[in-house]
Fold these 3 entries.
Entry 1:
Amino acid sequence: MSKVVFAGLATMSLLAMAAVSPSPSALPKAEMDKMVDACATCHGTNGEGLEARSAPRLAGLSKDYISRQLANFASGKRGTDTGDIYGSQMVAISKTLKPDDIDAVAAYYAGLSASAPHPVVPGDVGQGKLLYESCAACHGEDGMGIAELGAPRLAGQADWYVLHSLKLYKSNSRGAGDTYGQQMVAAMQVVPDEKAMRDVTAYLATLSER
Ligand code: HEC
Ligand code: HEC
């Protein structure tokens, strides 16, 4: 357990370092601004996420995770299942991005911070905490993610998006096509139904307050 906590802390300090010294963008400023303006129409001006657009928070996710998701959308590993109606929007957008664009935009959002969105998903926090014990091995006790495992930060993510994502993994509409996502499909075995998904989501929302 302490090893997991340590890994989580190490990840946090790495993120903190990344925030202090973001790698300079390889793209000309005008190009970068244009791209980020496009993302902002759905993901919000500071990458905080917009529920009205079903678009999650990007601020503070790791550069590696953001890059990988953009590549997954572009290659059709994510967002192409008929059950994944929101992901399909990202498929079209990702296909317009060149490798340099992905690199720059992922670094940009990884370096931003945003306050946690207001929770909207009710659930039993106590039950959720128990369930989260099975998640912590990969996402960290503090929900900050574990880079080495490819497991993203969940603390501070919008709860409606977390719930939506869990439903997608549970119904095999996300994750089946790639090795990282498959781990999530497997992890959902301990989350039997929508009530359990809501409980663990409600617990995660309490982590974002720290
Ligand atoms: C038309 C709206 C729209 C635009 C524009 C848009 N996105 Fe998205 N994006 C979404 C939605 C909706 C999702 C959630 C997909 C899902 O539910 O799986 C998403 C998901 C993502 C994810 C996955 C996040 C995660 O936690 O797994 C990343 C990364 C992302 N978008 C990056 C970008 C970037 C970078 C841009 C600009 C180049 C962009 N998006 C532009 C709507 C949009
Ligand atoms: C074996 C490691 C592992 C376990 C256990 C695990 N996860 Fe994950 N999780 C991952 C990985 C890896 C990803 C990234 C998958 C991808 O690229 O699509 C992920 C992605 C997610 C996402 C999507 C985040 C986003 O931004 O789109 C959510 C939500 C999530 N996990 C919640 C949970 C919950 C809740 C549990 C416990 C019930 C859990 N995970 C257990 C490894 C794990």
Entry 2:
Amino acid sequence: MKNLAKILILTVLITICLGYFIEPRHATAQQSEAKTAEQVYRNIQVLKGIPADQLLGTMSFIAGSLGVTCNYCHVNPFDKDEKPTKLRAREMILMMKKINQDNFKDNLSVNCATCHRGSTIPATTAPVAHVDFNKILAPASAAPAPLPTADEVFDKYIQALGGKDKIDKMTTLILKGSNTQINGPNPPQTTRGEIYRKAPNKLMMVMITPGGTFMQAYNGTIAWRGSNDRTQEIRGQDLLGAKRDAGFFRNIPLKDQYSTLKVVGRDQIGDKEVYVVEGVFNDTAPEKSLFGIQQEKLFFDTKTGLLIRRYLEYSTPLGKLPEMTDFEDYRSVEGVMLPFTIRSSRPPFSNIQKFTEITLNTPVEDTKFDMPKKSP
Ligand code: HEC
Ligand code: HEC
């Protein structure tokens, strides 16, 4: 029982941490009633005035900048001032504000990431000059082939996936495998998992642990999470995250999420050459409508045509927080190419989903995604 409670707290904490979101810059009428951090949290001394919704994003930014996780500064409950690192971080926030006020017209020119670069102790040694002699000495190669247009890249992507007909006929996906969560330097946590998706926007994730089964779902209207005997509706900020993740075609036809797309160059990811495409979200894209993110970068394998990375940045009051998703190990499932490994990372958390079995278009009842009625 104790163990179960522990796992529940851990899962809830991880989901809460992963589930934060950052409000759009332009507050709507509804959001203008949003509370400030000090109205919601108990011990806010230097981050007064930031929207409460942005506190967790700010914390992720701080942790990611230092390459640590929450417990580097926090004990439970989080409002306690027990660790010297938390007190030091407060001083650093004030220092950062002063540096920017005095030198950079109050812009976010210097922030935790500028100095810390993923380490608790910023470098005081100049970096070793890194010269790639092979590159310098290589004979000048012929002029590179001209870049394709964004339309060409996307057409090739649709073809590589299996073609428009097959994609349009997709209705459900059942994915089974494991999920490993990496939380800073803590040991990774692997659980067995199942994911049910139904077009256009239903999602159910099931985590199976020795301590019990945990679920999180969105049925198109209501998001909820539950453990063996408890269920709880997800509201506010976490609801937006659930909505976004539930989009069935989020990574598939993809193109209609953007108002403009441009192939900006070639790059290398691991041993793969990629086209880098910059997309500006249109107003209905969940990234823009839910999180206020303007654009992202997409990386397509120049050989296979498949999407292998998405990269975007959230704004927080202290600086930008990157989110990167990699799609690997594509295999054909009834003629549609699907990634069997998905790695995602938003500091300080990363997550690897490895699927052992994916089934396409097996009927799944709508009621599967509904919140269970309270047992009598
Ligand atoms: C480098 C230190 C540091 C790290 C790492 C850090 N925090 Fe914080 N956190 C702070 C400081 C400092 C405050 C208080 C800010 C203030 O006084 O305005 C704070 C405040 C908070 C609060 C408000 C508590 C209350 O009720 O007053 C929460 C919640 C919180 N942090 C969550 C997190 C989470 C979740 C993470 C990991 C993603 C995290 N923090 C990582 C330094 C840190
Ligand atoms: C202008 C550079 C600079 C900026 C900006 C900066 N730091 Fe630091 N920080 C340092 C230096 C230098 C140290 C001291 C390292 C040492 O002990 O040698 C330090 C130390 C710390 C420590 C104590 C580390 C330890 O284990 O002793 C924490 C925590 C910290 N910074 C948090 C932050 C946070 C959070 C931010 C952003 C709000 C931030 N820093 C911004 C330069 C900076």
Entry 3:
Amino acid sequence: MPVYKTVLLVAACLLVSGVAANTNATATTANAKAIPAAITSAPPSVTPEQDRVSMIAAIRRRFPAPIEDWSLGGASFAPGVAVVPLGGANATNVNDVLAIGKKAWERKFRNGKSMAACFPNGGRLVATTYPQFDSQKQAVVTLESAINACLLLHQEPPIGFRDGLTMGAISAYLRSLSVGQKLNVRVTGPAALSEYASGRHWFTRKLGHQDLACASCHVLAAGQIHDENGRKLGIAPAVGQTLAWPRIEPGGALRSLQQQFQICMRRVGAEPFELGSLEYDRLEFFLAAASTGLPIRPAMPTQ
Ligand code: HEC
């Protein structure tokens, strides 16, 4: 039996001790009554910083790699996991993606402005502060939704979150302007804390017919190999997970962080949420707060 199924009950860390049993089969039919108060969307009794520290401690107990390498994804440590090399015939490589993104970033709108008009410093360092809590909207804004807000402001059509070639490439370009800089996602004030708490809830809640929480794998089984129909996949630690996006799939399709959330929810047999849903924006906010202080990395291949 894989470790993440057996160690769940004896988890010592604060966060993981909140991993909740799901009485329903899917995430969307969640029964609020079954969830212990500590991990509902009520503000958690621990701070985001305490969560971060306890997750790091729990991961370190099992996974010896230095924390700077945690954002390199599962393939970086899993022996026998081969990453499909980029840059071969017909494969899109990171530079191609960035060139497409730069072109879209510099494209002139019908009003003569371009994307740079919406972000400070021509977009430099912008990605270090996303996702962020917008106190006017009283909601979490991801980098992708900020890109769409910019387009709408200038009467341009928004881009679908699934449109990897455009949204994926623009977000890859914008993130590339922050590579090497530390992520700085803060949870400030009660409204932001309640968004964070809701993200934390989805991270710690057991989901799907496999009855596993995100934390079951990405905290308790970090550094292990997940065998999926004979395919070996490395399970990377939750801390650092928001830093190297989008991922480039074999063949060149781009995978956003929230598309990865969908893959993982399907993996445990749960009905995934929509890209750009409140649930995923909050989950992303939670994970980014946990990765704060670590440097943003370039887009990289999937496993
Ligand atoms: C059964 C174990 C398991 C569970 C539960 C799980 N994941 Fe994953 N996750 C994986 C594996 C394996 C990968 C490797 C990439 C792939 O092929 O999907 C991965 C990859 C990821 C990544 C990409 C970074 C990386 O390389 O690790 C993110 C982000 C992520 N998962 C988030 C989540 C979230 C959020 C949840 C809860 C909704 C979740 N995962 C639940 C196994 C799991």
